[in-house]
Amino acid sequence: MANDSLTPVILCGGTGSRLWPMSRESLPKQFWPLLGGDSMLLETARRASGPSFAAPLLVAGEVHRFQVAEQMREGGIGGARILLEPEARNSAPAIAAAALFLAEQSPDAVLWIMAADAAVSDVPALHAALSQAAKAAREGFVVTFGMGPTAPETGYGYIEHGEALPGLPGVLAVRRFIEKPDLASARELASSGRHSWNSGMFVATARTLIEELQAHEPKVLEAARGAISAAARDLDFIRLGAAEFREAPSISIDYAVMERTAKAAVVLAEIGWSDVGSWDALWQVSPRDSSSNALQGAVEALDCEGCLIRSDGILTAAIGLKDVALVVTPDAVLALPRERSQDVKRVVDLLRAKGVKQATEHRRMYRPWGHYEGMIQGDRFQVKQIVVRPGGKLSLQKHHHRAEHWVVVHGTARVERDGEDLLRSENESVYLPLGAVHRLENPGKIPLVLIEVQVGSYLGEDDIVRLEDRYGRE
User: What single string gives the DSSP state of each residue in 378-395?
Assistant: First the structure.
């Protein structure tokens, strides 16, 4: 790694619940192509690629590790390293672990820390701002980026900036950070000329971050240090020590360091940034038609104005709507005035409290070998579509409460069943009686698609007894 290169640190956690029903815990917004191209994660990694950047370090949760790895592979992001958090403890422990991990190779490495789910429309301007921030970071500052407010946004934190720092063009001192304000305060802040939105991106050396965490939140650093010492390689991942990491206080880097340090600085950047944290925010950064509608998917809009209408499934028609967000997925629909986009989290919390699985799970569930999707469920039976990527291989397993019938509709399946080795092609099937030890594999060069019919007294996903698994799952 060149001494003047930046090391991207991409934080892949977060559930993006204000973008429900598209974004859910099982597949949060960072893995979705919100703006019609690549996923937010891949867009983030791509704008942090090139000769000025080292290979990225991604910090991800256990449950999403294979999506992260697969998107990096599909996007051609070479050399990506993936740290696995055993559980979410907010951003400070994640950043502490990343800084300690990178400091083992280069304590003075300059880290560019960012969330995986923000949008930037002017990448050259971003890189110019990064160059200014990196110079300040090498002088020992922890630099954030201030975005010029375009509206009295209550969903963002604000930065009050002070005087220019000598010898560091474009870098200002930070007077104070202001948490998400109410509407009246947001109007005052947005029009003051002294305040910017806090983008949540930071640039600092690994050494500076470690020193500041030691000074202001030593328990976070101690837990992260223990987790790094206990870390183990697992396939393409670095798995942090679970018991050690769980000792870290759950605290954001803003509270742990930025609001306490005397080394905070800010670069004011006009880069077309949005955290895409709500349906209204997505509408603002989306292409819109002559009636200011942002339409995506199987949608027809008649006499609508200022709407965001998105369908990831069935044909959706809207008539006479104004300033509304309407979002349709295969198993849930959301409709609300765009101005109330911040309230979506309240609906998610309500559904979660009632135990509604759509609050957290999609009908399509991703696995390291591919994905499956529920189609029909009734009393003692359910039907799923299973897609196995080329070379994918499910665990060797059995079930106590259900039998299964597989019908191949595309590709070739290799099935191990109680010691038999069976090959099945399109329009062929195989029956797996209750208790049969079995495994499914795609030996071909194209995706394997099959229909699975389950019949039994209990059909939950926890009725899987794994006997062997190449992906290290229990």
Answer: ETTEEEEEEEE-TT-BPP
Q: Determine the straight-line distance between the first and last CA of the chain, rounded to whole angstroms.
A: 37
Q: Could you report the average pLDDT of every consecutive run of 10 residues in the chain (474 residues)?
A: 79 91 94 90 95 95 90 92 94 97 96 96 96 97 94 88 95 93 91 91 98 97 97 89 96 95 95 93 95 97 98 95 97 96 95 96 90 92 96 95 97 96 97 96 97 95 91 74
> Can you say whether the dihedral through the CA atoms of 349, 354, 355, 359 is positive or negative?
negative
Tokens (6 digits) for 395: 């665990």
Stretch (H or E) spanning 334: strand 332-337
Domain boundaries, the chain: 6-274, 288-353, 364-468
Angle 452-456-461 (CA atoms, 0-180°, nearest 5)?
A: 65
C-alpha distances in Å from residue 273, one per residue of 78, 122, 188, 380: 26, 8, 21, 50
| Phi, psi at 443, each rounded to 5° | -85, 0
Are the CB atoms for 265 and 257 separated by under 8 Å?
no
Residue 83, SS3? strand
CATH class of 364-468: mainly beta
Angstrom distances, CA of residue 417 to CA of 168, 318, 381, 422, 461: 67, 50, 21, 8, 20
State the DSSP H helix or E strand holding residue 104, giving kind and residue range, or none if neither. none
What is the dotted CATH code of the domain comprising 6-274?
Answer: 3.90.550.10
349: Cβ–Cβ under 8 A, 6 or more apart, which residues? none
Buried b (16+ CB within 10 A) or exposed e, 108-137: ebbbbbbbbbbbbeeeeebbebbebbbbbb
Residue whose C-alpha is closest to residue 386's, from 406, 401, 372: 372
Secondary element (H or E) of residue 396 = strand 396-398
Q: Is-contact 371 365, C-beta < 8 A?
A: yes
pTM, full prediction: 0.88
The tokens describing 69, both together, are 């790895």
Please choose, from the candidates 369, 141, 156, the residue with its C-alpha nearest in 3D space to the C-alpha of residue 280.
156
